[in-house]
Amino acid sequence: MKSAVQKSSIPESKIFVVRDLTEKHFDPEWHAHQEYQIFLVLKGTGTRFIGNTVKSFSKGDLTFLGPNIPHLWRSDECYFEKHSNRETHGIVIYFKENFLGNLLQKEEMSQVNALFSKARKGLEFYGKTGKEISRLMSELASHHGIDSLVQLLRILDILAHTREYNQLHNENYIYKLKEAETSRINIVYNYAARYFKRRITLEEVANLLNMTPTSFSRYFTMKTSKSFSNFLIELRIKHACKLLSEQEQKNIAQICYECGFNTLSNFNRQFRDYMKMTPKEYRKEFMTL
Q: CA-CA distance, 71 to 30, in Å (whole number)?
């Protein structure tokens, strides 16, 4: 069975690759590759799946992933319903761990080396750091030769020294799936992302993979390190965070039912368990930023 890890996207003649992405979906399938990846969203909204984490994305979303971390950025269906001619837009930088050769082991590069170690668990950046990196990455396409490498090193240096980041995983995420299993997870992720606003039973999602509910439950937990019910709750909570921060005109009860929760009390309890604060506190904190 083939590995689902994609082959290198960097030609032997290049140190690193910068790509400008303009597509309906950034990643059509959940996948992984051997390169490090810095990814910036310039336009579009949706849900990103990185390893076993789930979070909404929008303009300015900035992540740095180490090798072999599976990922998928899935655009919101409503984004295209409201803007039929819209596409997502992003910039991605790919490079291998040894792209600097032995230089990475030198004293001057110790903090960048530490950054690479952190990236193996996945990183997301925010605040002034995110804005500065957004500017530098947008300029990178216009640089050539040595200037482009200097620009990349400047980006890495800023990321290595900032404290404006969150670690995505507590432990290194180990990618174990084969190609057929990746296809299965894609089916589940896309189904959940499309229908999470309504009730999804274990039976119906198990039927997607021609499994019994018990077998599917065991399979999903083994491959993602979380139960399907917890994954679905997390997907709904992250969407609620997006609505709480972006749609102030909607009250908490409206957001509760729009995200697929049946009762306000259950929504408040689940939100507090995942976010360590109530929806009201989250909205208040976000509005003061």
A: 5
Hey, which residues does 21 pair with through a beta bridge?
90
pLDDT tens, position by position, 210-259: 999 999 999 999 888 889 999 999 999 999 998 998 888 999 999 999 99
What count of residues does the chain have? 289
**CA–CA dist 66, 116 (Å, integer):** 7
103 and 189 in a single domain? The answer is no
CATH code at position 196: 1.10.10.60
Token match 């077998």: residue?
A: 215
| Helix 228-246 vs helix 213-224: crossing angle, to nearest 10 | 60
Comparing CA positions, the residue from 247, 224, 249 lying closest to residue 235 is: 224
Closest CA to 270 of 250, 226, 240, 227: 240
Does the residue 1 lie in any domain?
A: no
* Residue 25 confidence (pLDDT) above 80: no
Q: Is 36 inside a domain boundary?
A: yes
In the chain, how many domains are there?
A: 2
pLDDT in tens, 32-84: 888 999 999 999 888 899 988 898 899 999 999 999 888 989 887 654 455 55
Residue range(s) defining the domain that contains residue 249: 179-287
pTM (two decimals): 0.78
Helix (H), strand (E) at residue 152: helix 146-161
Residues 113 and 233 in one domain: no
Q: Give ∠ CA 122-43-9 in degrees, rounded to 5.
A: 50
Domain finish residue from 106, 141, 167: 167
State pLDDT tens for residues 110-138: 999 999 999 999 999 999 999 999 999 99
Other Cβ atoms less than 10 A from the Cβ of 57: the count is 26
